[in-house]
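During the reporting period the student researcher (J.K.) took over the structure-prediction task from the postdoctoral fellow and processed the backlog of single-chain submissions. One of the processed entries is reproduced below for the supervisory committee.
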Amino acid sequence: MERTPRRVILAGLAGLAAAFTTRASGAQTVGEAAPVTVGPDYLSPYSLAFSIDTTLLNTGFDRAPWNDPDAEAAESVPAWETAYRGARGAAWGPPARQYPQPTLARQDEDYRRQRVISVAARHIGLPYQHHHVPSWGPPAGWPWLPVEAGSNGPGLDCSNFVSFAYNYALGLKLPTGIALQGHTVDLPGPGDVGVLRARRIDVRRYDDLRAVLAPADLLYIRNRQDRVSHVVMWLGVVGQSPTATPLILDCTQTLHRDASGATIPIGVRLRPFREDGWYWRRFSHAHRLIGAEVVMRPGTVDPLPEGDDQA
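J.K. obtained the following structure tokens:
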């Protein structure tokens, strides 16, 4: 079974992360993402500005299991492929591992929010695929859930994307089926220790929502049947737009236009959250997983199913 090695896949994505540079702002070091060129002739007008040094945000990622793309999955990928080829749910690929609770450089809310966003931003340019882990390269002839990318390959969908970002950054592993994720507020705590009660945010005015949201909040979007079918990550002050329009980071195969009117390619991208746009018109609610109002308690939650494994 031929495949593109996972380390080669990650090396290609590392070229995207290389767009992140560091600049000085007074006495503070700020990590900034310049507009990223990915794919044919697309230059994003948007960028990211971190108020915390990216070296601090990346604390621990040079250690196991974070430094090994082969460790993204919950079990050995070759063994999983041998066991599950042709099985129900095989198209999704191996399930993601539960990352341990990391040792963080800081414990404040701002640090944790920016750490999650910095992990999510590493995947800018990753294609949209119905998979659980970003580095998995399906073998030739592997079952596939067709998407706009046109062929099978590495990638994530919306709910697996935000779950992986939180899991890798903080050890918070979310259910990856979009409907279940959107309605579950009692989650396994960092490293699967304790129970985290997320705060649900229900706001019905655009300006009120902008005022209440914080970076790394998750926004859930309804489809035409009024069911939660998509999730995006709010960037807040980290997102930089030439028009001051708030930005989100998500993985979608739906086409949207940026501030210059250009079509934003599918996959993981920075996108605008406009008052007259689809994201706001179909907004359902938001979840906050970081903050003083997010409650941690002892205990356990029942195991959460991995994705919508129906193919």
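The committee noted the following: The chain is about 20% helix and 20% strand.
J.K. will present the remaining backlog at the next meeting.
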